[in-house]
Amino acid sequence: QVSLVESGGGLVQAGGSLRLSCAVPGSIFSKNSMAWFRQTPGKQRELVGLIATSGRTTYADPVKGRFTISRDNAKNTVYLQMNNLKPEDTAVYYCNTVPLDPSRSWGQGTQVTVSS
């Protein structure tokens, strides 16, 4: 089963930046729009933003103007650049295809913690 591997999380102070990476198997990367999601305990996973194969991006309102998604087709990797981080951005961040494939498991995610 193909797997998605997120990395780059960590602890950062409010106002700081992090860049997350998601390694995607080549068999699915070139054919799919990719999205970042995040989840906090007790809450449903929410969409952060997505990038189409064309490179067009869409973002959820809470992160507009602060987060940027990009994709490197040569490396089969999608990135999430997060600037001006806020404590409410604290979550486990995941990547996945859009639309979701029910047969594909989520990756382990990467923890982002923003201290005030």
Walk me through this protein's architecture.
- The protein starts with a strand and ends with a strand.
- It has 116 residues and is mainly beta.
- It is globular.
- The model has no long low-confidence stretch (mean pLDDT 95).
- The protein is built from 1 helix and 10 strands; from the N terminus they run βββαβββββββ.
- A 6-stranded mixed β-sheet has the order 2-10-9-4-5-6, with no helix packed on it.
- The protein has one helix spanning 26-29; strands at 5-7, 10-13, 18-23, 33-39, 46-51, 57-59, 67-72, 77-82, 91-98, 110-115.
What overall geometry do the principal axes of the alpha carbons give? globular
Strand content: over 45%
Secondary-structure content class = mainly beta
Poorly predicted ranges (pLDDT <50, ≥5 residues)?
Answer: none
What is the element string, with H for helices and E for strands? EEEHEEEEEEE
The major β-sheet equals: 6 strands, mixed
| Tally of separate helices | 1
The number of E-state strands comes to: 10
Mean pLDDT: 95
Percent in helix: under 10%
Widest sheet: strand ordering: 2-10-9-4-5-6
Computed over alpha carbons, the radius of gyration is 13 Å
- Note the gap between the termini: 39 Å
